[in-house]
Design brief:
Layout: E1 50-58, E2 66-68, E3 72-74, E4 78-83, E5 86-91, E6 98-103, E7 108-111, E8 120-125, E9 138-143, E10 149-154, E11 166-170, E12 173-178, E13 181-186, E14 192-197, E15 202-208, E16 213-220, E17 228-235, E18 242-247, E19 252-259, E20 262-268, E21 275-279, E22 285-290, E23 311-313, E24 317-321, E25 325-328, E26 331-333, E27 335-340, E28 346-351, E29 356-364, E30 367-374, E31 381-387, E32 392-399, E33 415-419, E34 422-426, E35 429-431, E36 442-450
């Protein structure tokens, strides 16, 4: 596992027993509904040292065999992951004590990082009943604390041509998209609300949920495979109605970084992100933020359903991670810098410091939560809070990762979730090792909390 490609997400609940009056500064707003996407605020950091509070292992994976372990979801009680065709959970604060396990009729083929306020999420799996053995054609909604399956619904999946199914969530709705179409399912009943198929030249490429629902649409001329015109559309979640459409320039690949405010990452004639574009409430262009070659490291994976790594979006700014630089021999460092969404101008900059690198995880109120990692293989990792209003950093605690777990390097991609003052690292897949008769246990996830 690693922390360079931290997923933007992992929303959390108020810690039990905490007082919102001592939480981070946050704009007052109506109390969230049960089916809102979880978007909460951590209590103020106290500093100190962290310790291991949760571990999850995959057992029985044959040597040399790879197994998918998608999704990493957390409540104050349980750590939950997918493991092949199963959903499994362990109790936090115990020595890997199982909370529950549920077997699905087929392997999990898509997951969303989002969780509802009342602790539900969704995955897609292959039913095996479709003529196409790769059909990712069923959605399941379940409760994280109990594993209870709330509904299991068929989606109108068709040929993928190698394109993965992606799913996301927005208030009250679960949305799945694939090569031939997109469908939305009611979060309470599992009933299909709407669906749309591809038109001859266009197909839905990526969906982004959270506060709103947006989709990236690719339209081909049919004569030149490079000539794909991308559109970004905002949809009304329960009807699928197009609210507005933004049309990108020719030969520009567009990814949605954030649905609200809408921020789009584009590849303009390159195989890397060249610019970030902010859009207004009507889908009109506001500002362009140049990535200056490899100076900034925003990474967008076409197989990933939500967001891009290395970019954190607030109400008024986007914070972008720099590439690692070596200022002196052996001193690898990076920084996080804010850009105004209205003007594109630079703002506050957070330096990781000598022999350290920052990896932003998510917003917590109006502060940024990040993991800081030493690059000298000696210094421990730490969970920190970055305050855009003051430019200051405050530590939650420092910690180390169990040896052999695979976590803690500055390459690769772990799912990182922060919940109730704890930080969790989840692996997206494992490969078996050891002997055929007695395979080694493989690390799927670890969780660290503050040692009081």
């Amino acid at each position: 596992m690693a922390v360079a490609a931290l997923l933007v997400g992992g929303w959390v609940l108020w810690p039990k027993g905490s007082d919102p009056s001592v939480a981070l500064n946050k704009k007052s707003s109506p109390a969230p509904a049960a089916d809102d996407i979880r978007e909460s605020v951590e209590a103020r950091p106290k500093g100190g040292v962290g310790h291991l509070e949760a571990t999850m292992m995959a057992r029985g994976v044959a040597p040399g065999k790879s197994q998918s372990t998608p999704g990493t979801w957390v409540t104050d009680k349980t750590l939950v992951k997918g493991n092949g065709s199963s959903l499994v959970a362990v109790k936090i604060g115990t020595a890997e004590e199982d909370a529950w396990a549920k077997h699905l009729p087929g392997p999990i083929c898509a997951a969303t990082p989002y969780v509802t306020v009342d602790g539900r999420t969704a995955v897609a799996y292959k039913s095996g009943t479709n003529k196409d053995p790769d059909a990712c054609d069923r959605l399941v909604m379940f409760e994280l604390d109990t594993g209870e399956k709330l509904w299991d619904s068929k989606i109108p999946w068709k040929e993928s041509f190698g394109e993965p199914t992606r799913i996301t969530m927005v208030r009250g709705v679960v949305v799945a998209t694939w090569w031939e179409g997109t469908a939305a399912v009611d979060m309470q009943s599992g009933r299909t609300l709407w669906e749309r198929g591809r038109t001859k030249p266009c197909h839905d490429d990526q969906v982004q949920g959270g506060k709103a629902l947006t989709v990236s649409v690719g339209c081909s001329s049919g004569t030149d495979y490079r000539d794909v015109r991308y559109q970004v559309q905002k949809l009304e979640p329960r009807s699928g109605r197009v609210v507005w459409t933004y049309r990108a320039a020719r030969y520009v690949h567009a990814y949605v970084v954030s649905s609200e405010p809408t921020v789009v990452a584009v590849e303009a004639g390159e195989d890397e992100i060249t610019d970030l574009l902010s859009l207004d409430d009507h889908g009109k262009h506001r500002a362009t933020i140049r990535m200056e070659g490899d100076h900034y490291q925003v990474k967008c994976d076409p197989e990933r359903g939500d967001g891009c790594a290395g970019a954190i979006v607030t109400d008024s700014e986007v914070y972008v991670l720099s590439g690692a630089t070596s200022e002196t021999l052996g001193n690898n460092t990076n920084w996080l810098v804010g850009f105004d969404l209205a003007t594109g101008k630079t703002g506050v900059k957070f330096d990781a410091g000598p022999n350290q690198q920052l990896h932003p995880v998510r917003m917590s109120g109006d502060r940024i939560l990040a993991v800081k990692e030493g690059t000298d293989l000696v210094a421990p990792m730490s969970l920190v809070e970055l305050d855009p209003a003051t430019g200051k950093e405050r530590p939650y605690y420092s910690f180390t990762i169990p040896q052999g777990s695979g976590s803690g390097s500055a390459s690769g991609g772990a799912t990182v979730v922060i919940e109730d003052g704890r930080v969790f690292f989840g692996n997206s897949g494992v490969t078996g090792s050891g002997e055929e008769r007695m395979p080694d246990a493989q690390w799927m996830a670890v969780g660290i909390g503050r040692a009081d």
